[in-house]
Design goal:
about 475 residues; alpha+beta; 7-stranded mixed sheet; 6-stranded mixed sheet; 15 strands
Amino acid sequence: MTKVDTAWLRMDSPSNLMMIVGVWTLRPRIRHADLCERVQERLLKYARFRQRVVEDTAGATWVEDAKFDIQRHVLLEKLPRHSKGEEQFALQERVGELAMQPLDRRHPLWQFHLVEDYDGGSALIVRIHHCIADGIALISVTMSLVDGGAPPPERARKASAAGAQDWIADTLIKPFTDMSVKALGAAGEGAVRSLGLLRDPQKGIDGSLDLAKLAYQVVSDAAALALMPDDSKTRLKGKPGMTKRVAWCDPIPLDEVRAVGKALNCSINDVLLSCVAGAIGQYLKSLGDDISGQEIRAMIPVNLRPLDQAYKLGNRFGLVPLVLPIGMENPIERVYEVRRRMDALKGSTQPLLAFGMLAIAGLLIKPAQEAMLNLFGKKTTAVMTNVPGPREKLKFLGSTLEQSMFWVPQSGDIGLGVSILSYGGGVQFGVITDTVLCPKPQAIIDEFEPEFARLSLVTLMLPWGE
């Protein structure tokens, strides 16, 4: 197991399990037997889903599970009795429960939970430990499971390619252990060149000027990470408990989001992140909190791998901090402020430095690892993902995949996760929260659509041509 994946394996805590949790809703219903057959036919072609983890003092190793049983991993679920119209609430309750139910480490670290009869169709809850793969890689897995999907590409493992991630850790990341200017000085020119090549393998670095610019960027970004102040103290920040709740909203038409972004000369991402900031601000305001001038920091995953390599699984992403202006009332001012902050992050080496921290953490014993990773927990209120999915709705076992939602785990004491997923012509927001910090995540979700409606309305009222 690579050092980065080992870090994710060891990051489980009583408050936050390192699982990616997802939900599919399908119509018409599917059968458990058919699901088992599809999983055996497609998913098990990826070795990681047949393997268990063995840990020792040197780290962790993937080994084939001699006692693998498909019935242990593809389970039938029955939701509690509920009145008509409350099926979604019952499903959300069950997803929250499963988000805090550890996977059995004696076997492969994943499970599918099928609710055969759900709201005129079926619901599928997916749980996969983060040490197996990151979100981008799991989208590749998803594409191989759906009707017409293909298994992972057949490939010969070249000896020269083996251990590539460890090469990155040895030659590039270790010099940045201290996350300081001193570390850069110890690393020297070779490490900076490696960092530049990793950022843009096709371009490389030409001349001493480009090298100097990159070196300066690395120093600045490392200092920014190390000196980042603790996050704002809101009711969403604190010591989490051991219970989770999830919530999601109906999709917003993607064409409407695109139209607002075009009118404001902003990206779709800027518009959506602005709505996240507004919804969280309105939620806190509804509880009587003074949010004027308030900001919170969210960690956003950044992909560090070529998309055509996603089928190889594992974790190849970094993290970049985005400060959300939750206290900015005017939706136009807020979206432009989000755009400004997102533009400032472009070209940053912070995702690579964060990846380096995770690689180093994988080398350490658990107490030392926890001390290093607490940096993110103290300085962050939320983990937020924004993933573009297929524009057309997919088919799975002959049924239509109507809705798809997922949540990445929150590490340390982080108690809020926000997911944005575009799929089938719509955009959905999902929230997962610790119940000590936010007992009713639906109250945040209920603010998303009104925030987008406000932004749309104000956009229509702006002078034409300006």
